[in-house]
Each structure stands twice: as structure tokens, then as C-alpha cells.
Design goal:
By secondary structure, the chain is of the alpha/beta class. The protein folds into five domains: 46 residues, no CATH class; 154 residues, P-loop containing nucleotide triphosphate hydrolases (Rossmann fold); 95 residues, Orthogonal Bundle (Helicase, Ruva Protein, domain 3); 206 residues, Rossmann fold; 92 residues, Helicase, Ruva Protein, domain 3, CATH 1.10.8.60. Helices cover 47% and strands 13% of the residues. It is built from 30 helices and 18 strands. The strands form five sheets. Strands 1-3-4-5-2-6 form a six-stranded mixed β-sheet. Helix 29 packs across helix 30. About 7% of the residues have low confidence.
């Protein structure tokens, strides 16, 4: 029978009185209470039952833990449950080489989330199932370990270690077995108690050293650096294989290979142009994710969208085209649908006219910028360089920053603006690429590199570059020459699809000085004063790497008048929402243009003047006065001052 002491020992310490083999002992915990009850009913002849156990039952017990906590990927591939691996031949070749080694035959895939690390392991299993691997791996089996299930239910100290040890013992008995642990950094510290040194990684180390069990792991750069690499004894047993994000062209080939599976699932047909658009648009507009994962998400969601849009089943399958892909990308990226277009040629054709309609008085500067961008897109630029690198110079308030802002809006790409006044000290430059080892923030990456890695298609604006520490120029030399920048974690940011714009007031102070005689100084592209000032601030090797030094001229009065009209029209739209009509005569426009512009402050003073003389008049009237329910307002000039008369609706 069962005594009270036996039950207490079992509940408290997991000590069982059941007869068992030392090598094949059961994994006892509270969930095994049913087995205890069954043993109690047949306790008298337990020894006879043990002897009567069939050989088949013993064999099944030998793989008990493998069945509970692993999935055999090669068998899964034979059942057709794994999609084919497209490309990645170099990674597969390197993986097979590492697995064929005598010692340290454990590859670990390290890369950004979504670049296909798990897919490579599954693709290797599919190649084994198809017998397309060398003889050394022809009979290999890949067991994917579910660490969550392995940890679940381990209530007492030692339960997890016991499960893992028995699982590894079962793997030892299977020749040419390969263990696959997704997110392998989770084993560092798994099962450890506070103040204890033993965890899952310490159990794996001696087994991996012997080389009898091979292990494939995956991890991201952050987790590998933060957790896995800290355990040097464990990380040295693995061979690091970096998995880079594929290019849009490589992603297109991947999508072509797996699209038939999605066509069968969603009962749709993808056009070749739609597949190409999914690769290109997802790379450009969907941020914080990586290729090919985000492109596959677009294809999958477009199929679901088309399938649900069909009210009744039809014989003819819905066809997904470029327009459908653009809609899905707009929804996923939260970018306005009108900004997303795969027709870049049409966009570039209208770029110059669009910029000239929003940036006034700088037609020469706009032409130089657009010409350089078109030259790059046409392929007449050296490869492995940014789209274009510009230095905008000129007085304040003439549209340098505004041109960069309008350019990003016209191209439909994000604008990364860095105010260089924040980087005047030598140590602050490190914030752009990340703090060096041993300093606070080493594990956080760099502001500039992270921004470009998240948005590889963008406009980079370095505002008032001359205010930054001179070390910034040395860093930008590499960016303008090779379009790459490495952060403190060793990750490269690719600037090949980035337009770099730097603004400077170089030469502005020289222009502001009163001139002798009757000479009028006016900044213009190629003016003599611009190169003279630029040469003093920027080194020859820096200037040599610029596509163009774009000089911005001072604004004549007719251009200032157009700026005033634009800002008044924008204010009229706001008043229209409140049913208020504003009449601004030509003399009012002239007065605002004359009073609002100066050579010292440029056009910046115009918005302040409109705010003080026009907008502030309406505040109290809209909230509490005559215009609460709409009305009319008329401006006129009285004694060289702008006066606004208000009348409410009758």
C-alpha cells in the first residue's frame, strides 16, 4: 500500500516509490498524480507488470521526451508542411560546412527579426527530405525544441534540468541528430534560481563540446549581444552566421517562389507586377520590419483582402494587381494612399514643377537638386553612393529647410531632421552612431544609424551643419563616399537610397555687412562670396564629395508677396471651416510683404507679422464675440497700419 510518508515525499520533493530504470525514469510532478493512483490500485503486482512490459513499449518510452517537447522538421517537410527556401545558397553552404565539422559543429543564425533565420533551418530540413544535401547529412534528423513546453509545469527545483537532461539523453541515442533552438538566447538563465549558477546553458556546454549532438540556434543582434555573447563559454561553441536583409530584387525572387502557395490558399492570382510592387513598396514605406517578412505580409494580406472582397464564390479567381498592393501598403504603413505609388518615373517627371509651386524664388536651387536626383535615378551616378549629397548655403529665412521638407513630401518619403546645434561637443557626435563600449547607452544603438535602418528610403536633413563639432565631417566622408555607416553594435546602415541635405549660413554674415559705394550684394548660386566662406569652414575632401553646393538667393519683393498670399490662403481655409470669409485686398498683401521681410531675418518674420496683425484679431471674436456663428472680415490700410473690420452674419 501507500503510506502517508510516501505521499508527503512525493508532493514535497518529487521522490517516488515507483520502481523505475535509472536511465529511463519518469518525469514526476503534480500532473503525474494519476499515475500514482493507478500504481496504488495495482501495487501488489507492480514488479510483475514491469517484467511484462513489451519491447514496443520500451522503445516508445525511449522517445517520450522527444515526442512531448520537439517537432521533427525533416518529417514535417516530407509531409509538405514547409515552404521551399528561395536563394540563400551561400548561407546554406556555410551551414552545411559547420554541421560537417568534428567539433564546434553548431551554427547560430544572427540577424534582424524577419530576415528569414527560422526559414533557413526549415529550408535545410526540406533539402534533407529531398536528399539534396551531402552524404554526411543524408540521414540527419532536425528536432525543433519547444522551450516554452519544456519550462511549463516545472514547479520544483530540478524539474526543468531533469527534463532537459533526459531530452538530451534521448537525442544522444539517435545517430546524426540535430537540435534546433529558435531564439536560443532564452536558454541563458533558463531554470536558474536567484544566486545559483546552474541554468540550461551549463547543461548544454559539455554535450556541445563533445560534438555528438549538433545544435542550430537563432537570435537577433540585440539579444545575441545582450545575453548570448555574455556567456563566452557557450558562445565559443557556436559558429556565428550573420543573416543579412535581402535586397528588393532578392525579395522579388523569394516572393515568386512562394506565391503559388498563397494563390492556392487564398484562391487568387497575383500578377508579376504586383509581386514586384510588394517587394519595392514594402521596402520603401513599411518601417520597423525587414525584408522578406514584410513583403510576404503584404502578399498575404492582399490575398486575404481580395478573397474577402468577393461576395460569392466564382469560377474565375480574383486577380491582384499593383493598385491592390498600393492599398494594402498604405493601410499597413499608415501613409496616405495618394503618397504611395510604384510609378516613380511619373513622380520624378513632375518633381521640379511641384517644388517650384511650393518653394518660391529659388528656381535655380530647385533645378540643381532635381537634376542631381534624376541623374542618380537614371543610373548615371557611381554605384554604392547616396542618391545625392547637397550643401545648401545662404541667408536665413530664404527656404533652405523648406525645400528639404517639400522634397520629402513630394517623393513620399520620411524626413529625418537633425539640428546640429545639439552636437557641438566632441562626445555628442557619438550619439549619432551609438556610445562606445563601457559608456552608458552602448546597447541602445545610434540615433542616425537607427533612423536610416528603419527608413532606408528617406531625406536626411542636417540643419546648420557648421554648428556641429568638426568630427561630424569625418563621419560624413564615409557616408558620402560609400553610403554606409557602422554603429557601435557593428550593424551597417545603408544610405544608397537616402538624399543627404546639409544647410549652412556660410557667407550670410559677410553679405549682411554694409557695402562700400553703390554695390548691391545679393546671394545667388555661384556667387563669389559663397565659395569663399565655404572654403573656410569645410575641408577640400569634404567639398569634393558633395554633388552640388546650392546657393540660395535673397528673395525679391514680388516673391515675398507670393509667400504672403500663400500664408493668407492657408488661413482662409481655417476660417472657412468656421464659416468666416476674409477679404484681404492687394494693398494689405503689399503692406504685409513690405513690413514682414528683411535681409536679416528673411521671410521668417512674415508668419510672425500675420500672426500678430491678422490671426490674433480673430481669437476672441471666434470664441466669444461676433464670429461665434460665422461672419465676414475685411482688411484695409489706415495710417500705414493694417486694420481688420469684423461683421457677424445677419
Amino acid at each position: 500500500g501507500v503510506f502517508r510518508l510516501d505521499i508527503m515525499n512525493f508532493i514535497s520533493h518529487g521522490i517516488s516509490v515507483l520502481p523505475s530504470d535509472s536511465d529511463e525514469s519518469e518525469d514526476f510532478s503534480l500532473k503525474d498524480m494519476e499515475e500514482l493512483e493507478n500504481w496504488d490500485e495495482n501495487s501488489g503486482d507492480s514488479g510483475q507488470d514491469d517484467e511484462a512490459q513489451t519491447e514496443q513499449e520500451k522503445k516508445s518510452n525511449k522517445k517520450k521526451y522527444l515526442k512531448l517537447y520537439t517537432v521533427e522538421l525533416v518529417e514535417k517537410a516530407r509531409r509538405g508542411e514547409i515552404d521551399p527556401l528561395i536563394g540563400r545558397d551561400d548561407v546554406i553552404e556555410r551551414t552545411i560546412q559547420v554541421l560537417s565539422r568534428r567539433y564546434k559543429n553548431n551554427p547560430i543564425f544572427v540577424g534582424d527579426p524577419g530576415v528569414g533565420k527560422t526559414a533557413i533551418a526549415e529550408g535545410l530540413a526540406r533539402l534533407i527530405a529531398l536528399n539534396e544535401v551531402p552524404k554526411s547529412l543524408a540521414d540527419a534528423q532536425i528536432f525543433s525544441i519547444d522551450m516554452g513546453s519544456l519550462l511549463a509545469g516545472t514547479r520544483f527545483r530540478g524539474d526543468f534540468e531533469e527534463r532537459l537532461k533526459k531530452l538530451l539523453n534521448e537525442l544522444k541515442n539517435i545517430p546524426n541528430s540535430i537540435m534546433f533552438i529558435d531564439e536560443i538566447h532564452t536558454i541563458v538563465g533558463a531554470g536558474a534560481v536567484q544566486g545559483g549558477a546552474l541554468d540550461a546553458s551549463h547543461i548544454l556546454k559539455p554535450i556541445l563540446t563533445a560534438g555528438k549532438i549538433k545544435c542550430i540556434g537563432t537570435s537577433t543582434y540585440e539579444e545575441y549581444k545582450k545575453y548570448f555573447e555574455q556567456d563566452r563559454a557557450l558562445s565559443r561553441r557556436f559558429q556565428k552566421i550573420e543573416i543579412n536583409e535581402p535586397t528588393p530584387d532578392e525579395t522579388y525572387e523569394i516572393l515568386k517562389g512562394i506565391t503559388p502557395y498563397y494563390e492556392t490558399f487564398h484562391n487568387v492570382v497575383y500578377s508579376d507586377d504586383a509581386i514586384r510592387a510588394a517587394a519595392d513598396l514594402s521596402a520603401r514605406y513599411i518601417q520597423d520590419l525587414h525584408l522578406p517578412d514584410k513583403a510576404i505580409d503584404v502578399i498575404d494580406e492582399a490575398g486575404a483582402y481580395a478573397k474577402l472582397a468577393v461576395a460569392k464564390p466564382t469560377v474565375k479567381k480574383p486577380r491582384i494587381n499593383i493598385r491592390d498592393i498600393e492599398k494594402i501598403v498604405a493601410k499597413m504603413s499608415k501613409v496616405p494612399e495618394k503618397s504611395i505609388s510604384s510609378g516613380e518615373a511619373k513622380q520624378l517627371k513632375n518633381l521640379e514643377s511641384g517644388l517650384k509651386s511650393t518653394v518660391f524664388g529659388q528656381d535655380d536651387a530647385v533645378h540643381l537638386v532635381v537634376d542631381a536626383i534624376k541623374r542618380s535615378r537614371a543610373g548615371f551616378r557611381e554605384p554604392n553612393k547616396p542618391v545625392a549629397s547637397f550643401l545648401f548655403v545662404g541667408p536665413t529665412g530664404v527656404g533652405k529647410t523648406e525645400l528639404a521638407r517639400q522634397l520629402s513630401m513630394s517623393l513620399g518619403v520620411p524626413l529625418h531632421r537633425f539640428d546640429m546645434s545639439e552636437y557641438q561637443e566632441k562626445h555628442t557626435i557619438a550619439r549619432l552612431i551609438g556610445a562606445p563600449p563601457g559608456y552608458i547607452g552602448f546597447d541602445q544603438g545610434g540615433l542616425l544609424t537607427d533612423a536610416i535602418r528603419r527608413n532606408p528610403y528617406s531625406v536626411l536633413l542636417l540643419d546648420e551643419i557648421e554648428k556641429a563639432h568638426s568630427d561630424i565631417y569625418n563621419m560624413l566622408l564615409q557616408v558620402m563616399d560609400y553610403a554606409t555607416l557602422t554603429d557601435n553594435q557593428g550593424r551597417k546602415a545603408n544610405f544608397q537610397n537616402v538624399i543627404i541635405i546639409m544647410t549652412s549660413n556660410a557667407g550670410a554674415r559677410e553679405i549682411e555687412k554694409p557695402s562700400m559705394g553703390f554695390t548691391e550684394k545679393n546671394m545667388s548660386p555661384g556667387a563669389a562670396s559663397i565659395p569663399k566662406e565655404v572654403e573656410k569652414i569645410f575641408s577640400p575632401e569634404f567639398r569634393n564629395r558633395l554633388d552640388c553646393i546650392v546657393g540660395f538667393r535673397r528673395l525679391p519683393i514680388e516673391i515675398v508677396r507670393r509667400i504672403v498670399v500663400k500664408q493668407i490662403d492657408e488661413f482662409r481655409v481655417q476660417l472657412g471651416d468656421k464659416k468666416i470669409l476674409l477679404d484681404m485686398p492687394g494693398e494689405g498683401i503689399d503692406w504685409l510683404a513690405r513690413k514682414g521681410y528683411s535681409d536679416t531675418f528673411g521671410a521668417r518674420e512674415i508668419s510672425r507679422l500675420i500672426q500678430d496683425k491678422v490671426k490674433s484679431i480673430f481669437i476672441d471674436e471666434v470664441l466669444f464675440g461676433k464670429l461665434t456663428k460665422g461672419g465676414n472680415a475685411a482688411a484695409k490700410i489706415v495710417n500705414d497700419d493694417l486694420v481688420i473690420e469684423i461683421s457677424k452674419n445677419k
